[in-house]
Specification:
Strands 5, 6, 7, 8, 9, 10 and 11 form a seven-stranded mixed beta sheet that branches. A two-stranded antiparallel sheet has the order 1-2. It is of the alpha/beta class and 386 residues long. It has three domains: 32-114, no CATH class; 117-197, no CATH class; 200-367, Trna Endonuclease, Chain: A, domain 1 (3-Layer(aba) Sandwich), CATH 3.40.1350.10. It has helices at 32-50, 54-76, 80-93, 102-114, 117-120, 154-163, 167-180, 184-192, 195-198, 206-209, 212-221, 239-248, 250-257, 304-319, 339-347, 366-369, 375-385, and strands at 124-125, 132-133, 137-140, 143-146, 203-204, 226-227, 261-272, 275-285, 290-300, 329-336, 353-359. It is elongated, with a radius of gyration of 27 Å.
Length: 386
């Protein structure tokens, strides 16, 4: 059975150990019966431990099975038919448990092969981070495995291995999965949207305007570009259309912003000397402990945008910021931005501001969009059918 995190829960049940079934005329490799018997005993032992530590023991078991199969392929030439037979025997012995299908058995082998001593010997640099991550390891069957991958569910491990070939990126996404508690759906979204290429890439002045303890965390909280693949707006859409679309899809918008963003309001009202001003989107970041002001622009970045943001941040710090809050941060989201122009603009600005691009949609490729019928054509066709 599966739990809510997609982990395989092994029900504890005492049954007699069966001998492998022997089809008429079928020849099995020498030692197969002993191997299967030992594997059944190990599975039973792990199932008892799984009541206390389901995921770690399950990953260890799958690592052992993957290593054992790989070793026998190398030493005895085991082929696909033997591995498929092994899966059938395990399924017969542990009926009702889905973890021993042929495809999952092959994933166990791939899981073992994905993490080797050669990989672990190399220090890992996290994309966008200044330090190095030397992964902690644990030993299973006298082989080393990154401790990270024993702490995430099996389904997450499968996604990481099948969607990523680079071991550095695999470790990076495993680490982020643990940090943020991503579900499998969120993990897939983050990989497919290339989070490792975007996180921490916004043009900012955080190093000059924030204390060191906050500037690196703030930098990593921003992305460039942001991908709003849940929106489809026309070329002549205005900022209010973009804002409305983001609010209507606030859950997906928060997912793209990242962990820690709490929504405060849209068109947030500020009053200064009896004049009214409105912030497009106002958030509070729980880890940074500060307000986040977002200004939306359906056009390329212009230097004058920073002046408006500087005003907003000054007012928010004066009217909303409490003693326990850090200085407010501004994010200018533009349709496009030229890096050097943004850098020059922010260089002597005293308030912390970041500039990022956004991509509205990647759901339908441009070449396909040209061939789709327009709304008028669809209405005409539907009217004809009525």
């Amino acid at each position: 059975m599966d739990n809510k995190h997609g982990q395989l829960l092994l029900p504890i049940k005492r049954t007699a150990i069966r001998e492998p079934s022997q089809k008429s005329g079928e020849r099995l490799p020498s030692g197969y019966g002993t191997f299967l018997k030992d594997l059944k005993v190990r599975i039973r032992t792990v199932r008892l431990k799984a009541a206390l530590s389901v995921n770690s023991e399950l990953i260890s078991l799958y690592w052992h099975i993957g290593k054992s199969i790989s070793d026998r392929q190398n030493s005895e030439g085991w082929g696909k038919s033997i591995v498929d037979r092994l899966a059938a025997d395990l399924q017969q012995e542990f009926q009702g448990i889905e973890g021993f299908s042929p495809s999952n058995i092959w994933r166990m082998r791939a899981f073992f092969l994905a993490w080797t001593k050669k990989v672990l010997a190399q220090p890992v640099r996290e994309s966008g981070d200044s330090g190095k991550l030397a992964p902690l390891v644990r030993e299973i069957d006298n082989t080393k495995i990154p401790k990270l991958v024993t702490e995430i569910p099996w389904g997450h491990n499968v996604i990481i291995i099948e969607k990523l070939k680079n071991p550095v990126l695999r470790l990076w996404y495993a680490q982020k999965t643990i940090e943020h508690g991503w579900s499998r759906a969120v993990l897939i979204h983050q990989i497919e949207s290339g989070l490792h290429k975007r996180q921490g890439k916004a043009v900012t002045n955080f190093k000059q305007t924030l204390p060191p303890s906050q500037s690196e965390l703030a930098q990593q909280a921003l992305k460039d570009p942001y991908i709003f693949d849940f929106l489809s707006l026309s070329e002549d859409a205005a900022e209010r259309d973009l804002e409305k679309g983001l609010i209507e899809h606030i859950r997906k918008f928060l997912l793209e912003l990242g962990v820690g963003f709490a929504f405060v309001g849209s068109q947030y009202h500020l009053e200064v000397e009896e004049e009214d001003f409105y912030i497009d989107l106002l958030f509070y970041h729980l880890r940074l402990k500060c307000f986040i002001v977002i200004d939306l622009k359906m056009e390329p970045f212009k230097p004058e945008f920073a002046g408006k943001m500087n005003f907003y941040l000054s007012v928010v710090d004066e009217q909303l910021r409490q003693d326990v809050d850090n200085p407010s941060i501004g994010i200018i989201l533009c349709k496009t931005r030229k890096k050097l122009i943004a850098e020059y603009t922010l260089r002597n600005t005293n308030t912390p501001i970041g500039v990022s691009e956004y991509k509205l949609t990647r759901i339908i490729p441009p070449d396909l969009q040209k061939n789709l019928p327009s709304i008028r054509e669809l209405e005409k066709e539907l009217g004809r059918g009525g």
